[in-house]
Amino acid sequence: MRRLILFLLFFVMIGEVHAQFTYGTTGLLNMPTADMQRDKTFVFGGGFLEKHATPARWTYNTFNYYLDITIFPWLEVSYICTLHKAMEVDPAYGPGFWVSSTYGKFVNQDRNFAVRLRLWKEGWWKPWTPQIVLGANDALNNSWTEGSKIEMSSATANGFYSRYYLAVTKHLSMKEVGEWGLHLAYVYNRRKDYPLNGPAIGANFRFSLPPTSFINKAVNNLNLMAEYDSKSINCGFEYSFWKDYINAIVELNRCKYFSGGLVFKLHLK
């Protein structure tokens, strides 16, 4: 079964908009895309993050949760929290940062904001023109360890999820079969512990078979995804319940490390 799933993910590569629970925004699994949610869509969710799906700061498995809203059709903002566990030797802060009685327990959380701005809508000029989005996670960082200065993408202090990107997306429809999404992005940050500086490429396929049977209706809720996020090759899927209001997402980072989450959507307009 695992081989069959991997076969489908890599040969039915690259639909409808989906949430990226690992970063708390719209996207594929880890890589950003130029997809945008419907205007006035409110999203909240979270899940289990295996350590390979997180920045280098997390040497252990953790959990996250987030709120996301598309304020205008061209503007999306998010607030994301990722849980910290007290470690005897912390990879970011060194030994003795946490109280010894809390070692091994979740005692804090990393907070970051994300913003996505649509620069160009798909098909604005010609039907073949793609959509373009400029975005950032952890865009501004208050580096109190470096004199309480605010900066963009600190190399070593806070801002663990820092990334800036330009993403391009194009959708291709197949009548009574489904919709393909082709995604290309350039991702960048200044982190020394989690460097991102290169292209990312990915794809997804969402079925739209004729609803003539229960199986067809069930398959139509499935969204297959595969990507190279500029660091690793990942695959996974999203399954929508109740007309896209509830979504379950599964990621296999490096195609073997499991992360999973739930995403809830509410369309305010």
Task: Describe the protein in words.
It holds the Pfam family YjbH. This is YjbH domain-containing protein. InterPro entries: YbjH. It comes from Phocaeicola sartorii. This protein is mainly β. The chain has one domain (1-267): monomeric porin ompg (Porin). Helices cover 6% and strands 51% of the residues. The protein is built from 2 helices and 18 strands. The strands form 4 sheets. It has a 12-stranded antiparallel barrel. A two-stranded antiparallel ribbon has the order 1-2. It has a two-stranded antiparallel sheet with strand order 6-7. Strand 6 (89-90) and strand 7 (94-95) form a beta hairpin. The radius of gyration is 19 Å and the shape is globular. The N and C termini lie far apart (40 Å).
Please give the structural blueprint:
Blueprint: H1 2-11, E1 19-20, E2 25-26, E3 41-49, E4 62-72, E5 75-85, E6 89-90, E7 94-95, E8 106-120, E9 131-137, E10 141-143, E11 149-151, E12 163-174, E13 178-188, E14 197-207, H2 214-219, E15 222-228, E16 233-241, E17 246-253, E18 257-267
Antiparallel strand pairs: 1-2, 3-4, 3-18, 4-5, 5-8, 6-7, 8-9, 9-12, 10-11, 12-13, 13-14, 14-15, 15-16, 16-17, 17-18
Protein traits:
single chain, 269 residues, Porin, 12-stranded antiparallel β-barrel, disordered N terminus, YjbH domain-containing protein, YbjH
